Amino acid sequence: QLQLVESGGGLVQPGGSLRLSCAGSGFAFDYYAIGWFRQAPGKEREVFSCITSSGGNTNYGSSVKGRFTISRDNAKNTVYLQMNDLKPEDSAIYYCAAQRGAMCVMRTAFHNYWGQGTQVTVSS
Predict the structure, then answer these.
(1) Which of 5, 20, 53, 62 could hold 102 in an S-S bridge, CB 3.0 to 4.6 Å?
(2) pLDDT of the chain along its 124 residues, tens only?
(3) For residue 42, what are the CA distances in angstroms to 39, 71, 73, 76, 109?
(4) Rounded Cα distance, 90 and 18, in Å
(5) Beta-carbon neighbour count of residue 123 at 10 Å?
(6) 51: number of Cβ within 10 Å
(7) How many angstroms separate the CA atoms of 78 and 50, rounded?
(8) 117 with 93: CB under 8 angstroms?
(9) Which residues have a Cβ under 8 Å from the Cβ of 89 and sit 6 or more positions away?
């Protein structure tokens, strides 16, 4: 079956780091650009990063640029998100999703497959 599974979330102190993973199965993983999204309670879902199907290009939103890095290993059907210098406002459920195409389109409506999310909490 088609699925994406996020992992690696947890509780960290401000300034700390986490590495999230997004593992895909049941579809042609290397055909899809993958986006990272996050949503905090009471707030709208934010798309903040994506990576093209080949991994050749990446996009970042201003809220995370310079702190987060997206990468992928298509041989492992996995996309990673390295998060550094985490801030309390980064606290959210983090989702990965596969979009309809090889290139990045940072719009929720373009994404076909979604994981169930992994919680990231940044707090002292």
Answers:
(1) 53
(2) 889 999 999 999 999 999 999 999 999 999 999 999 999 999 999 999 999 999 999 999 999 999 999 999 999 999 999 999 999 999 999 999 999 899 999 998 988 899 999 999 999 9
(3) 8, 29, 33, 34, 20
(4) 11
(5) 10
(6) 24
(7) 13
(8) yes
(9) 122
Tokens encoding 116: 């169930």
Distance CA 44, CA 53 (A): 26
Q: How many CB atoms within 10 Å of residue 120?
A: 23
Say if CB 54 and CB 75 are below 8 A apart: no
Alpha-carbon gap, residue 61 to 46, rounded angstroms: 9
Q: What single letter denotes the amino acid at residue 76?
A: K
